[in-house]
Design a protein that fits this description.
Layout: H1 9-28, H2 36-51, E1 57-62, E2 78-79, E3 86-95, H3 97-101, E4 108-115, E5 126-132, H4 147-158, E6 166-170, H5 176-185, E7 188-192, H6 196-204, H7 206-209, E8 213-219, H8 220-233, E9 236-242, H9 246-254, E10 263-265, H10 266-269, E11 275-280, E12 291-293, E13 296-305, E14 310-319
Parallel strand pairs: 1-3, 6-7, 6-8
Antiparallel strand pairs: 1-2, 3-4, 4-11, 5-8, 5-9, 9-10, 11-13, 12-13, 13-14
Helix pairs in contact: 1-2, 4-5, 6-8
């Protein structure tokens, strides 16, 4: 019997959900304990163990960092049992380590998988990001626009006033000027302390989350993960890598990036169909967090396939030992 080598997203999707769930449950015991590193390590260990049970020849293209910086799930690490299709994997075992340590909302475990060569090998640098949900013409907002021009353009496309647009922004000193420009339009701003993958995902379900647009600078690896989610849910995303020094430019060149000024679209960052899973660790507007019940832990996972546009919400209850 030969081992299948095609990327069968339907068959692999449930396995990916198990990977995400295992990481969330492992980190759950550290919610509110103030130890970011321990929570992250617990998620990493569980995610790695589950990945190695899958019938894949996987390579981590978005991970915890370079090999010398991360003992597990580093960029370039091979995962899976060595059988099955060759795949790219982008992951954040615990998006929101601070959120978990402080028991704050919107901590997630996040992972995406696609055929080999399907995801941008983004270096660990900053990325300037812009995202909106589905239903708008291509290019209704662009990276060339000022923040206020983006709000005005989106409001016109939505058929509302700028006061009815809500923009999600990471609360960082580097965004103060941008926030001032946004405030001048009269739009609402939802400031988040961490978790910009969740921030981008919010745009895809604006009717539920109330967020119309995401913008600002955050990690480039998280940008690829967010693009994978929007590939499944619909929506537009743009990203431009930002470099503070020669070391960061060298990281990009090492990753095979030659045009350092390129603006990437969603489909540039994720070029083929992918599957995406996110499990709540702490309660959030995307998925609920881990629930402790007598004798059980219950997790909820968002599982998506871009090929079909399917979005599943799966509840998983597991006995505690």
């Amino acid at each position: 019997m030969t081992t299948p080598t095609d990327f069968n997203d339907r068959m692999l999707s449930l396995g990916l959900a198990r990977v995400s769930e295992a990481a969330a449950m492992a980190s759950a015991r550290l919610i509110g304990h103030g130890d970011e590193k321990a929570a992250d390590q617990a998620a990493v260990n569980a995610m790695r163990d589950q990945l190695n049970k899958l019938d894949i020849q996987g390579v981590v293209v978005i991970g915890e960092g370079e090999r010398d910086e991360a003992p597990m799930l580093y960029i370039g690490e091979e995962v899976g049992n060595g059988q099955g299709p060759a795949v790219d994997i982008a992951l954040d075992p615990l998006e929101g380590t601070t959120l978990t340590a402080k028991d704050m909302p919107n901590a997630l475990t996040v992972i995406a998988m696609g055929p080999r060569g399907s995801m941008l090998h983004a270096p660990d640098v900053y990325m300037d990001k812009l995202a909106i949900g589905p239903g708008y013409r291509e290019g209704v907002v662009t990276m060339d626009m000022t923040p206020s021009e983006r709000v005005s353009a989106l409001a016109a496309a939505k058929g509302c006033s700028t006061g009815n647009i809500t923009v999600c922004v990471l609360e960082r000193p580097r965004h103060e000027t941008m926030i001032d420009q946004l405030r001048a339009t009269g739009c609402a701003i939802r400031l988040i302390t961490d978790g910009d993958v969740a921030g981008v995902i919010h745009c895809a379900e604006a009717d539920i989350t109330g967020i119309d647009m995401y913008m600002g600078e955050g990690g480039a690896p998280e940008g690829v993960l967010a693009a994978a989610a929007l590939k499944c849910m619909g929506g537009q995303m743009y990203g431009k890598l930002l470099f503070r020094n020669d070391d960061e430019r060298g990281r990009a060149q090492k990753a095979g990036i030659t045009n350092l000024d390129r603006v990437y679209t969603r489909d540039d960052m994720v070029t083929q169909d992918v599957i995406f899973a996110a499990t709540g660790v702490t309660d959030g507007s995307i998925v609920p967090g881990i629930k402790r019940e007598v004798g059980y832990l219950t997790a909820e996972t968002l599982l998506m396939r871009s090929k079909t546009g399917s979005v599943r919400r799966m509840s998983y209850r597991n006995p505690t030992r």
